[in-house]
Amino acid sequence: MNPFIYDLSLEELQQWAVENGEAAFRGGQIYEWLYVKRVNSFDEMSNLSKELRRKLTEQFSFVTLNEITRFESKDGTIKFLFGLHDDHAIETVIMKHNYGNSICVTTQVGCRIGCTFCASTLGGLKRNLTAGEIVAQVVQAQKMLDPKGERVSSIVIMGSGEPFENYDATMKFLRTMIHEKGLNIGQRHITVSTSGIVPNIYQFAEENTQINLAISIHAPNDKLRSKLMPVNRRFPFEDVIESLRYYQAKTGRRITFEYALIGGMNDQVEHAEELADVIKDMNCHVNLIPVNHVPERKYVRTSRNDIFKFQRALADKGVNVTIRREQGHDIAAACGQLRAKHMELG
């Protein structure tokens, strides 16, 4: 199969144009057709010669995201299950906020991190997505919003998979998203979430971006985190915290800690106090996420009363904390459930 046209950066398109006997600015024209005019085929690139369009058609493919199913929530959230060219499937979610449209993108087919409360990891990791397959999710969402005169205003890389285990493709995707000649999404409106792949947290600190970093922490210590997140055995809690302190010293950026509250596991006041003692000197924010029920898992949601107790315990120790506003709760519960259901039916 030909490489995806969305896999190429502007500079790579310009280089390709030159190598194919064209002026470099033709690469810029192709880039504009892809990201500003958002065409669906090379034939629509009307200011390119027929010969150049023929070469593009022969050498590249558009990413095909076949919509298998979609669910629309009462709150405006739209959840898609997209089929890929090789019969794998991924989820993408568009969320409506009062400040605009946010898209949650996926970076891998499945996941190998193995968090015990998550549906995404049930079938293991099938493969990494290319940068172009991640890009295509945002382009597709933007095409859907175009008739309404709306735009994708923010991106969260929190769909299935571990972005930092597909690091190069994720970074290439990010550079395409923020490019001023492309979709031009503000860096501070993009958040990448990791389960704590320590070497790549250090690498991300050197990238010199304004993109937000979120960490799935889910426990205040090594022992409990290893029970909930097997990745903690590879990258222990203390090493994750140390890498985050380095990231913060290097970038000055605030870190978001994502903490899924699981009934009777990690949701007691003593857990909150222990977490606060670890992170209270950091410029950070804790986002509490009442865990979604996953049929294949035995976990239960933390009671409302315990959620608020946990929040208060963190706040009393000076930690900035909020409870995540739930969206799309009526259409599908946990991340990964649409894909899991599709795999069963398949």
TrEMBL record:
One BP term from GO: tRNA methylation
Residues of the Radical SAM core domain: 97-330
Keyword entries, A-Z: 4Fe-4S, Cytoplasm, Disulfide bond, Iron, Iron-sulfur, Metal-binding, Methyltransferase, rRNA processing, S-adenosyl-L-methionine, Transferase, tRNA processing
Catalytic residue positions: E91, C335
One cellular-component annotation, GO: cytoplasm
Cofactor(s) the protein requires to work: [4Fe-4S] cluster
EC number(s) from the headed UniProt entry: 2.1.1.192
Broad EC category: transferase
Principal subcellular localization: cytoplasm
Reaction(s) catalysed by this chain's protein: adenosine(2503) in 23S rRNA + 2 reduced [2Fe-2S]-[ferredoxin] + 2 S-adenosyl-L-methionine = 2-methyladenosine(2503) in 23S rRNA + 5'-deoxyadenosine + L-methionine + 2 oxidized [2Fe-2S]-[ferredoxin] + S-adenosyl-L-homocysteine; adenosine(37) in tRNA + 2 reduced [2Fe-2S]-[ferredoxin] + 2 S-adenosyl-L-methionine = 2-methyladenosine(37) in tRNA + 5'-deoxyadenosine + L-methionine + 2 oxidized [2Fe-2S]-[ferredoxin] + S-adenosyl-L-homocysteine
Note accompanying the cofactor annotation: Binds 1 [4Fe-4S] cluster. The cluster is coordinated with 3 cysteines and an exchangeable S-adenosyl-L-methionine.
Protein's cellular compartments: Cytoplasm
SMART domains: Elp3
Sequence positions that bind S-adenosyl-L-methionine: G161, E162, S193, S216, I217, H218, N292
A GO molecular-function descriptor: metal ion binding
Gene3D superfamilies assigned to the protein according to its UniProt record, in alphabetical order: 1.10.150.530, Aldolase class I (3.20.20.70)
Keyword Lyase appears in the UniProt entry: no
Pfam families, per database record: Radical_SAM (PF04055), RlmN_N (PF21016)
Binding site for [4Fe-4S] cluster: C111, C115, C118
Miscellaneous section: Reaction proceeds by a ping-pong mechanism involving intermediate methylation of a conserved cysteine residue.
Family: Belongs to the radical SAM superfamily. RlmN family.
NCBIfam families named among the record's database cross-references: rRNA_mod_RlmN
PANTHER family linked: 23S RRNA METHYLTRANSFERASE, RADICAL SAM CORE DOMAIN-CONTAINING PROTEIN
Function of the protein: Specifically methylates position 2 of adenine 2503 in 23S rRNA and position 2 of adenine 37 in tRNAs.
Protein name listed in UniProt: Probable dual-specificity RNA methyltransferase RlmN
Phylogenetic classification of the source organism: Bacteria, Bacillati, Bacillota, Bacilli, Bacillales
